[in-house]
Design a protein that fits this description.
Elements (H helix, E strand, L loop, with lengths): L3 E2 L5 H7 L2 E7 L4 H16 L4 E6 L4 H6 L7 E6 L2 E7 L4 H12 L3 H15 L1
Parallel strand pairs: 1-3, 2-3
Antiparallel strand pairs: 2-4, 4-5
């Protein structure tokens, strides 16, 4: 499946409605972004159980700013609506496959428990 074009209009709803979402923040002028695009697109075709989305940081500057994007490409992953990964830099196909596998195996009950513990300690 082809990655979705994510914008300010559909980003929050896509995060909320996707059990697992990988987001590529990119720009047309960015060489590493252009090199990563076919890797990302290929993975999107291989993993139909994962939603893939792309944010053009040139046309979606407010969204990129809200996501605190300071370097591109940046890859973000959301699972069950929770941001569980955010890292600048392009991955090769093997690195992206390893990331997808680790995200699929991520224990969200443990993540939610950690978040609850962190919230309690801030109170």
């Amino acid at each position: 499946m082809k990655p979705l074009e994510l914008t300010e209009t559909n980003f929050a709803e896509t995060v909320k409605s996707s059990p697992m979402l990988l987001v590529d923040f990119w720009a047309a002028w960015c060489g590493p972004c252009r090199n990563f695009a076919p890797v990302f697109d290929t993975a999107a075709g291989l993993h139909e159980d994962v939603t893939f989305g792309k944010v053009n940081t040139e046309t979606q500057q407010n969204l990129a700013a809200a996501a605190q994007i300071t370097s591109i490409p940046t890859l973000m992953a959301f699972k069950d609506g929770v941001l569980v990964y955010s890292q600048p830099g392009a991955l090769d196909s093997r690195g992206l496959e390893e990331l997808i596998t680790s995200l699929k195996n991520l224990d969200m009950e443990a993540v939610h428990a950690e978040m609850a513990d962190a919230q309690k300690s801030q109170s």
